[in-house]
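Posted in: Protein Modeling Q&A

I'm a second-year student putting together a small comparison for a lab meeting, and my supervisor asked me to include a predicted structure for cysteine desulfurase. I've never done this before, so apologies if this is the wrong subforum. The sequence is pasted below exactly as I got it from our records. If anyone can share the structure token output, I'd also love a short note on what stands out.
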Amino acid sequence: MTQAETAVRGLDVAAVRAQFPILTRRTRGDRPLVYLDSGATSQKPLRVLDAERDFYLTRNAAVHRGTHLLAEEATDVYEGARERVAAFIGADAGEVVFTRSATEAVNLLAYAIGNATIAGGPDRLRLRPGDEILVTELEHHANLVPWQQLCLRTGAVLRWLGVTPQGRLDLADLGRLLSARTRIVALTHQSNVTGAVSPVPAVARLAHEVGALVVVDAAQSVPHFPVEVRGLGADFLCFSGHKMLAPYGTGVLYGRAELLDMLPPFQTGGSMIEVVTMERSSFLPPPHRFEPGVPLAAQAAGLAAACDYLTELGMARVAAHEEALTGRALAALGALPGVRIIGPGTTADRGGTVSFVVDGIHPHDVGQYLDELGIAVRTGHHCAWPLHRALGVPATTRASFYLYNTPDEVDALAAGVRRAQEYFGRD
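Accepted answer (user: helix_wrangler)
Welcome! Here is the predicted structure, written out as tokens:
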């Protein structure tokens, strides 16, 4: 028995599924729901929903705004959530900025760096014409477009690493592309299309040797396997709550304390102010400098509850469970004639996202047929157009697994794809 199989036995999937009532619902034709779209958004367990509901039922008040009991308790919940989320990724509480999503986190960082450039801020954070930002073809649009826009605003130049035919990051040109002109290296930890896990520590080490800052999109990794920010070598790291069992409207920007302290704010208003006069304003230290307005305290409580739940389950066990499901899916789908996996064919350095194409059937038609069977998958370019172009496919069908999925659901996916081939006359 492999280590992964042993760990899977330690994860009581039936008990896990009991936390997710939505998984018991029926779909079209009274078929059971097979939810294989956690890469887009995960389902939410009862304890996360209860944490959010409890805040509204017992402590609902504006955080940092009042001296009455409810406001004090609301503030304690919010700042306590920050401590629990920070612990989940091995950070200090002051290094965790709450945002509404990973997308907002990347934009916050890109605009703050742009503001530092305009204001003549610290040289470490200032971009000049001809400076370079290095990204990769693996990126989700959320970790590509903000850097494109920052280049347009500052005169910096965007460069990128390509991908291999297996959908992994191609490091062959890394030495050539990294130079004294490289100021930022932004890369995904795990691709939302191919599932490939990038060697972030190795890239970060080389980037730091030329003085570049390293920004990691961890939206597809933090929910699925242990992530420790310092071990990664990340200067900044972003992830979303809704992909890791937490409510919508939650996200995190992690930044090393000394770097956050250098950054000017992205948005301004109440709650992030130190002193205001009619002529000028000064701003609070991080992380509050980057959290204007009334914070999403109830949602933060839900995010912290999700982190606690995942910690109790054990992220290593979660990862092993997904690895076993992914291996089963790669084998079952790979055995079907006319089905091609887009991405690595093994589970080595690979997450639980499996994208594929079926000869002669458009991915949207595959997804729609699977939906008729109660199987929820994602179709399209998955907000990663450049990656699909690089791999020579206009779109894919994507199944993504999480801690509540079962081997039977993987088998249902493979059987459903086979039925789709028969239905469209491609058997």
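A couple of things worth pointing out for your meeting: Residues 1-8 have pLDDT under 50 and may be disordered. The first strand starts at residue 34 and ends at 35.
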